Amino acid sequence: MTSLACRYFWTIQLAFLCLASSLPDTNAASQSCSTNDGHDSCCQNGENKYTVQEFTDEELFTRGHLKPFGSHRPPDEIVEELPFMISPQDFYMKYVVKHKPVVIKGAVKHWPAYKLWTDDYLERTYGDMMFNMETKDDDKYNIPKSMKLKEFLGIYHQADRYLVDEVPPDMRKEIILPLCLRCEEIDKYFFVSYFWFSQGNTSSAIHIDTDENMLCVVKGHKEVLMVSPEYSADLYADSSRVLGVLDINVASVDLEKYPRVKNVHYLKATVDEGDMVYIPQMWWHHVYSRVGRQQAVALWWKSKPWLKNGVRKSVPFPDHHKQ
Questions:
Q1: DSSP helix/strand/coil, 119
Q2: 261: in domain
Q3: By the 8 A CB rule, do 213 and 296 touch?
Q4: In 154-221, at which residue ranges do the beta strands (DSSP E only) sit?
């Protein structure tokens, strides 16, 4: 195992240990919400009410076998949506500390990038910059070669490619750090931002980020399925060929090969153009981008100081975006 892989491995192990003591017992919640006759029941979880529907193993298999991930059961909960920007203190205490996903509606619409990032503007301004590429099905074993942005803009409507790379410092001037991230606990450990760009109809592998993640949709629409790390064993995480990335085919889940996936409960978020969604650190998630031009920026930060050691940093956002 390389030193980088080894460090990543132990980061994951330590993060799981840290999270285990603070995660809510969703299995217990699901059991308390179920009824003996298999019908829906309305449950109270903090301030949010949601419905959990229970199925037999046979029903789960029939619903989910060789079908897209999440078909085996409905989501336990639709992720909470806030129609306004939340304060840093409330965001940190109500969501980050509790590992609770949330969608903030319209939070990206005041970014300069929201209006500026047309194909013409990007080609004129950043066309000669090199970016890393991936395939639309997120194949980690066949990584396409990097290319200049102007080359990508000429092919992305037809090619099996999407751009995934760190946001260059010049482009970062057109991103405004959200108000909810401007507190010491978050800002002190903020370290990287990533840019996703495609023609849509892309589907990520189910994976985890070892960092807290605010996924910001500049253009397009995404659906995000999120799974608590307590279901890692049911997702066969230990047998994955790539650490933190599952081998399960999200487009056609083989429940004969991976029968425990039937046990997995998940949350669902719909993230429209101009919205952002908080994905808690170490939560498994699958992101589907609908057909059409898609641009997103992920803002990642470390929520635990001991996880920050040895991790590279990006050039910070301009100070005037933190005023």
A1: helix
A2: yes
A3: no
A4: 162-166, 190-203, 212-219
